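We treat protein structure as text, and this decision shapes the records that our systems exchange. Below, we set out a record of this kind in full and without editing:

***
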Amino acid sequence: MSRPVLVAVDQDAGALRDVERELRDRYGRHYRVMSFHSPQEAQACLEDLSDSGDEVALVLSGQRPSGATGIELLDAARRLHPHAKRGLVIAWGDWGDPETGQAIFDSMARARIDHYVLRPSEPPDEAFHHAISSLLLGWADARRALPYTIHIVGESWSGRAYELRNLLGRCAIPHSFCLADSNEGRTLLADADAREPLPVVIFPNGKVLTDPSNVDLATAAGSAVNPDRIDFDLVIVGAGPAGLSAAVYGASEGLRTLVVDEGGIGGQATSSSLIRNYLGFPRGVSGRRLAQRAYDQAWIFGANFAFMQRVTQLRREGDGLAVTLSDSGRVRARAVLIATGADYRRLGVPTLEALNGAGVFYGGPMSEAPAMVGRDVYVLGGANSAGQAAVYLARYARRVTLVVRASSLAAGMSHYLVREVEATPNVSVRLGTEIVGGGGSGSLERLVLRGVAEETVDADGLFVMIGARPFTEWLPPEIDRDAQGFLLTGEDVRAWPLARRPFLLETSMPGVFAAGDVRHGSVKRLASAVGEGSIAIQLLHNLFATDLPHAGARVRNPRP
């Protein structure tokens, strides 16, 4: 197989020479580097590469090569090579030029470029290579070509193979899937000397598991399953953004911290293919990568993790709290943080529910997008996660239709994302529309849409992202909830047993806090969940300072 291609084009001979030098010196062993002075020649080359099936990993274009703007060439590259990353090369300080700055803002908002790249200076220019390596990492991630990717080989896309893919996705672990009767599947099985029963999971270190249990899979992938002690200062239930944030801050401040999650890390965030409005990530970051980094950060600070385990009971025990895990028994904690988040609501259409994993998917498309190449795909939902899913699927699918019940995208979606959806050529939007039926023989084949009228459309895939319900059924009845099951905290608590007032994020059970999407009144945004997780740790310090066993007798810190 030929090496992936890096393409550079710039009318400025000096700028092109600098870019080509850096690309060849640093990446020439693993990529083919092609450079052009003319955008017409560059586009012709991109067309030839597309026709021959060659992979283009990156296209870099100067701002105004002769005959066309750099942005126009990069836009053409998107159509020819949907997975290729695209960078607009500018000189240092050019962002201060109003015309250049506006072109960058507009082009990124409309997904015509991935980011701008500063023209390299004298070598070694590590800032330039940091930008390039970040773009190449994003390309490799999208192509399921990351190092240490876990391979799943199964008989079909549904059934146990789907469950394993879903589990690895929830653990934010890079993985790929192929059918056993495909060329790739036969090669993988032969190289690993793997035998039935299927599905087979092949790990980067050569380990092979046949039809593994969830615990076996998590353990082989390096995830912690059992805690190494029973006494903790803080037990966090849920490893989404709020839980991971609390784990980072709690462990870094010396609290003995345990994080428990029935699945893996990241929660709903792992379904987001590209989060562009999170502070500190101007090029955007996938929810999976953000979760991986947060997990690593918490682990380095000393947080303990127990995955593939449910919390089956939470109760007061003496001067602390007892938390019972499904497989490891009881652990004790001075405080508990509930950060279980929420899950997508179900459609409730029996014929579509029967196809879950066989064309119908709840949540984002990170794992399933490669199976949608050249197909007609629908996304149901009107919030940011649905918009991100539609834009991401557009790289694979022939056509993506975003089905929105509201009368406008702006009703539930960020402005930057509305512009990106509208600018993606193979994404269309159906407003004021619901999905009321559908079906297929073994996999999804059609959907019934109801708007002004009812119609049946051909469909190969459906991703459902229509709001959330909290994971709170397991909690004891003395913890207050609203009518939808979200946890009441702080001033919203109705039944409070102590003389002091509850802290800001504290539930009606003293010492038990809630953060993120599971909490009544929370802002359903990633940054808000992360913020609440960090705030919870400060509140815990205040709680511990009140000497909780005697908090009913003397009020040392009545308000947070």
About this structure: The longest helix spans residues 526-545.
